[in-house]
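A.,

Following up on our hallway conversation. Structure tokens first:
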């Protein structure tokens, strides 16, 4: 089943290394037959949160209206997050917080990375709380990528030979949850 799975990336640093990971995840999902738009805060240039999308009452900035349209079609979300000072990057938190109902009843999947050996898992654990509160609980598995600076070769391919096998298992889990919740949303939601 083809799904719509936006990939939300959370860094705006000038020398960001996680963008290669976000692009790879996007392409891997597309190769599986899914619509996977990459939501990059550098391209979308969201304002700092003043009002949520819904609070504009039809007069939202065009960038927010565009994202709301993408999110309304989503069957699930993939969040690609670095770890900044043991936490979530501010650009990602800003990207997430502009919306609420657009996320409801859709699963999320966390891909995390860091320069060190833990692969951003501390940020991933904080994201679980935020994503659950936003109405898009994360699937049980996470996909940590340690040593992001060495994780991909010059050709953009993963340096770790187990990467694709690990990602396949992770993607199958997300697909299962996204298909199940899509079917339940079609029947109606609790409120």
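Then the amino acids I'd put at each of the 191 positions:
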């Amino acid at each position: 089943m083809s799904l719509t799975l936006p990939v939300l990336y959370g860094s705006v640093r000038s020398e960001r290394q996680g963008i290669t990971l976000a692009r790879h995840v996007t392409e891997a999902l597309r190769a599986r037959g899914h619509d996977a738009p990459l939501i990059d805060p550098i391209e979308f240039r969201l304002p700092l949160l003043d009002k949520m999308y819904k609070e504009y009452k039809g007069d939202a900035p065009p960038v927010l209206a565009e994202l709301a349209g993408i999110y309304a079609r989503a069957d699930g979300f993939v969040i690609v997050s670095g770890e900044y000072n043991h936490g979530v990057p501010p650009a990602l938190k800003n990207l997430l917080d502009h919306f609420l109902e657009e996320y409801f009843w859709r699963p999320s999947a966390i891909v995390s990375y860091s320069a060190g050996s833990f692969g951003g898992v501390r940020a991933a654990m904080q994201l679980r709380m935020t994503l659950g509160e936003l109405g898009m609980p994360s699937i049980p598995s996470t996909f940590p990528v340690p040593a992001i600076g060495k994780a991909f070769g010059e050709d953009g391919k993963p340096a770790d030979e187990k990467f694709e096998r690990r990602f396949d298992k992770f993607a199958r889990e997300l697909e299962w949850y996204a298909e199940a919740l899509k079917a339940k949303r079609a029947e109606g939601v609790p409120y």
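The two ends are 26 Å apart (CA to CA). Curious whether your intuition agrees with the design.

B.
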